[in-house]
Amino acid sequence: MQVLSVVRKWFLLAAAGLCLVGVQQAGAAVDKKLTLGCLAYSEPMVQWIKEGLEPLGYQVKIMMFDANQLPATALKDGNLDGIIANHRPWILTFNRENDCHLEMVKPYYFHSFFAIYSTRHKNLEDIPNKAQIAVPGDPTNMSRSLIILEEAGLITLGEKTDIFYTVLDIKDNPKDISIIETEITQTARSINDVDAIIATAYFVSEAGGIDPASFLFEDPQNKDYALGLIVRDEDLEAEWAKLAMDTLHSEPYRKKFQEHFKGKYTLYP
Amino acid sequence: MTFPEYAAYWWKYFDGIIAPSIWATLRMLSASMLLALLFGFTIAVLLILYGPQGLRPAPNRYKVIDFFVNSIRSFPIIILIVAISPLTRMLVGTTIGEKAAIFPLTVAATPFLARILENSMRAVNPQLIEAARSFGASDWQIITRVMVKEALPLIVSGTTLAAITFLSATTLAGAVGAGGIGAVALNYGYQSFNNTVLYTSVIILFIMVQLLQFTGDWLYKKIL
């Protein structure tokens, strides 16, 4: 009998405790809990947001994903509050394909640095006839690479056959350059095997230890591929989103960004 | 799009992208299969010689070769392609393009074929081998004139199986810039939201598999 009553007492205490916890949590403003998504490369940035927001009473949970479209899908479905993962043009295509409304919080954070790199040649003019140039084979990056080659004066493009430029759309190729389509991580790795590659500074420096500033030709469209905090459009003006961007653009965190990425990405002013 | 417009659009992709990739796939597949048959046969002969019921049983040598065959077979092909790329650069001179893809494909196909050839030859009736031996046949004569001859139908059907398996493996070689029909289906079809290219490539892969199987079956019957 005595044992039973002790058990009952403990049980009641535990139940009361649980209730108390529940009440406390409900009291601490539900919308101060945030879940942010990221990819491996953007994990430090989301950590910085967490560092900036937690002293202000927010609870920030971070989830890392390993595939490109997963964070955006989770954000669209309401499982995440914000992500740093894909660039803005990609998000706009994602919106069209999935009939949703994701948008990047202003001021935009940074952009990647796409360029022509080479370990064999010092200048664009040195690229010989019949040169081999490796590019990422996926359609968006392929299309962008062909535009870079046109801007660099190596080829001219005709009209697009489809949504993206492909090798089919090359009109003139005076140097008879052969374009080798590779998987995006392989592109950077193959830098010593070809005359030049087109890749982001991030990949080039991670794969080959090559100085991001040693490019032959910079993609003039770089600034159009903004990266930053993406939210559902109803959250664009949310207080936390503004605070997050304030943190990332604050002087100490801009410095952290530069130290961490060492020129692999470029911050917006 | 009207039909003639669509036909012109289809032809543009077929002529410019799909057709060259078919040849790339066939070159990669035939080169790697031929090389793998050559090396695989050599390894299979060693396995048959030194195996438990072999012609000259040698358990330790067998274990070493067996371990080697198993360890290569444990790599998924895409991992093998990237993992042995320093070796590829040493031997082929580059890590991207068709030639660079043939090397890892051969490395992957060799133990696979070695196993198939070993199993086919092991299935030969031991009494036949005993009979040949009693006539004073050498090991080499037993292997070439009895085992290979008797096992030929199994070798043909096994090689057909391997060829079809490695046809799908060539689709991964697209990752290292080797092109091929699989890479076209992925990059120009699926990822570009272009169903014309995607399904044309799929139909071509389907036809390739049918042709391989048909040729294999035909040879099998011819030999049997």
TrEMBL record, chain A:
<dbReference type="Pfam" id="PF03180">
    <property type="entry name" value="Lipoprotein_9"/>
</dbReference>
<comment type="similarity">
    <text>Belongs to the NlpA lipoprotein family.</text>
</comment>
<keyword id="KW-0732">Signal</keyword>
<keyword id="KW-0472">Membrane</keyword>
<protein>
    <submittedName>
        <fullName>D-methionine transport system substrate-binding protein</fullName>
    </submittedName>
</protein>
<dbReference type="InterPro" id="IPR004872">
    <property type="entry name" value="Lipoprotein_NlpA"/>
</dbReference>
<keyword id="KW-0449">Lipoprotein</keyword>
<dbReference type="GO" id="GO:0016020">
    <property type="term" value="C:membrane"/>
</dbReference>
<keyword id="KW-0564">Palmitate</keyword>
<feature type="signal peptide">
    <location>
        <begin position="1"/>
        <end position="28"/>
    </location>
</feature>
Automatic annotation (TrEMBL), chain B:
<dbReference type="GO" id="GO:0005886">
    <property type="term" value="C:plasma membrane"/>
</dbReference>
<feature type="transmembrane region" description="Helical">
    <location>
        <begin position="31"/>
        <end position="52"/>
    </location>
</feature>
<keyword id="KW-1003">Cell membrane</keyword>
<keyword id="KW-0813">Transport</keyword>
<dbReference type="InterPro" id="IPR035906">
    <property type="entry name" value="MetI-like_sf"/>
</dbReference>
<protein>
    <submittedName>
        <fullName>D-methionine transport system permease protein</fullName>
    </submittedName>
</protein>
<feature type="transmembrane region" description="Helical">
    <location>
        <begin position="152"/>
        <end position="185"/>
    </location>
</feature>
<dbReference type="InterPro" id="IPR051322">
    <property type="entry name" value="AA_ABC_Transporter_Permease"/>
</dbReference>
<keyword id="KW-0812">Transmembrane</keyword>
<feature type="domain" description="ABC transmembrane type-1">
    <location>
        <begin position="22"/>
        <end position="216"/>
    </location>
</feature>
<feature type="transmembrane region" description="Helical">
    <location>
        <begin position="197"/>
        <end position="220"/>
    </location>
</feature>
<comment type="similarity">
    <text>Belongs to the binding-protein-dependent transport system permease family.</text>
</comment>
<feature type="transmembrane region" description="Helical">
    <location>
        <begin position="64"/>
        <end position="88"/>
    </location>
</feature>
<dbReference type="InterPro" id="IPR000515">
    <property type="entry name" value="MetI-like"/>
</dbReference>
<keyword id="KW-0472">Membrane</keyword>
<keyword id="KW-1133">Transmembrane helix</keyword>
<dbReference type="Pfam" id="PF00528">
    <property type="entry name" value="BPD_transp_1"/>
</dbReference>
<dbReference type="GO" id="GO:0048473">
    <property type="term" value="P:D-methionine transmembrane transport"/>
</dbReference>
